[in-house]
Amino acid sequence: MQAIFVDDEARILSGIERALMMQDSGWECRFATSGHEALSLLEDTPADVVVSDMRMPLMDGAEFLAQVRNRWPGTIRIILSGYSEPEATVRMLGVAHRFVSKPCDSTQLLEMVANALALRRLFKDPVVVTLVGKINQLPPAPKVFAEINRLLANSGANPLEIAGLLASDPALSARIMQLANSDWFNRGEPIHDIANAIIHLGQEQVKLLVLASQVYADASTDPYVDKLQQTALRASTLAARISRRREREATAALLANIALLIPELRTTCDEATIEQDDIPLRAAISAYLLALWGLPMDIVEAVAGHEQPSRSAEKTFGMLGVVHVAVTLANHGVPDKRYLEQTGMLDQLPAWQEMLND
């Protein structure tokens, strides 16, 4: 596996190199002191993951990673930053998959790189890797976005009302979860639900994130996005009721079909599968995107497997089963009755259907 580290401070790179020597990773690592030098290295041999400092002369990290995204979209992009001015944060949100605060312990950084490379091994299909690599922004539902902007402009707005609206939209929820689970804001346990993520970030960062979505939202007049948001919200609400208000199930159900926000996938997702594991392309891309953005792996795994729960080694009705039932029913489908019978939950199906009707 190929990794490139970019920082204009040679001592930072030396520290990373020393940490690498102490572990037998088997990675092929290269080092560059500028974005231009790193681009030359990539032209020679593309990398699986690139880690770049943000504040560099001539070409900063955001500009460098934008070129990486455009030319090598399959490369996982991680950015290091010791400052967070609003303009810089918006630019970084547009090009990086993961965010790491600086100064950063080299061992901790290499652990994040190892996790990113493990993702690449998990999702090998070039279609998934390339499509997801190009994505850094998804369109929020226009109606939800307009209402959130109206509330954010009102200094007396109820924070709970803002949180409720944000939690109803898959695109905005995914970005909030991405930022809240990043090293910038979270050094403890993974955050599984939108409400805690919003509290963790604070209202000013939430405003910034919504602002970063403005251009995409202005460009999106597709009623399909509104329809997807409504269906995702139904699935999330049903998952919460089935699981007795467990937040992680509700979040996974809300984000399960987030790949459908990518316009290029809408005509191919329903039929295409990844040949290696026969995973539906829609589920694989949704899971890979959420994993790249650093969401908790139990949510990622539930999204990846929710369309075919019978293939899971887990034969009890847990998070995967809840997400499968909620998303399938919300999309007017029929849950896998064989799976429900195997897990002893088939007799609950009428009650779940009644919950959805309510």
UniProtKB/TrEMBL annotation:
CDD domains: REC_HupR-like. PANTHER family: HDOD DOMAIN-CONTAINING PROTEIN, PTHR33525. The lineage of its organism: Bacteria, Pseudomonadati, Pseudomonadota, Gammaproteobacteria, Enterobacterales. This is Response regulator receiver domain-containing protein. One of its GO terms (biological process) is phosphorelay signal transduction system. Residues 2-117 form the Response regulatory domain. The modification 4-aspartylphosphate is found at residue 53. Residues 138-309 form the HDOD domain.
